[in-house]
Amino acid sequence: MRIEPLTFPAPGGGALVSSNARGGTTVRSGRPGAPGRPGPAAAPAAGLSLLDSLAARTADLSSLADVLIDCVQGGASVGWVKAPTKEQATAWWSAFLADPDHRTWVGRDDSGRIVATASLALTSKANGTHRAEVVKLLVHRQARGNKFAPGLMATIERFAKAERLSLLTLDTETGSLAESLYRRWGWSEVGAIPGFAKVAGGALVSTTIFYKQLGAR
Fold first, then answer.
1. pLDDT (tens digit, 9 = 90+) per residue, 56-85?
2. Taking a C-beta distance cutoff of 8 angstroms, is the pair 43, 155 a contact?
3. DSSP string of the chain?
């Protein structure tokens, strides 16, 4: 098991990776005029994985698609009513990873295959640069019980602290296992929004909003 940050080449020129003063990395998208945003800090036992090889990029996208499909099939409420096709899931990940405000970490099994992932969505709003949202914490059902989820969350929090973020938020389906895990990991509950998301069969379920304060900026 290992957890590492993942950076895909951005459209229009790829991603440039360089060291920063804190020993992490800075990723600048290849889009003309795009300001640099801080990239993932170094994670335990792994360096930054810049996928400049088409074969590696294809393999990792395929694995990420498999994780998404498996989690939705298992009942996860992560933006899909029914499980996407492999093509749809791959296209979704391609677009998600190309967003310069997204930071993504992955968990790999002993073979190097991605079996878990979690992301942080930064904000470009001037009044929100101190906060970010945790999104798409996903662990393939075959890989659960191996501490990927707490490992990914701990890695995200370390990155957020290193980048001087003081507030993290997230939401999850009310009554889900994830809801109890976030409480266990020290997240504070704001409340629930009824009828927030549609699930298979057409029913509407509530979502619970959580936050974690990491310290004053």
1. 788 899 999 999 999 999 988 788 888 999
2. yes
3. -EEEEEEPPPTTT--EEEE-TTSSEEEE-SSTTPPPEE-PPPBTTB--EE--SHHHHHHHHHHHHHHHHHHHHTT--SS-SSPPPHHHHHHHHHHHHH-TTEEEEEEE-TTS-EEEEEEEEE---GGGTTEEEEEEEEE-GGGTTSSHHHHHHHHHHHHHHHTT--EEEEEEETTSHHHHHHHHTTPEEEEEEEEEEE-TTS-EEEEEEEEEE----
Structure tokens at 120: 């942080």
| Nearest residue to 136 via CA among 89, 190, 180, 100 | 89
d(CA 49, CA 7): 6
Higher pLDDT, 7 or 207: 207
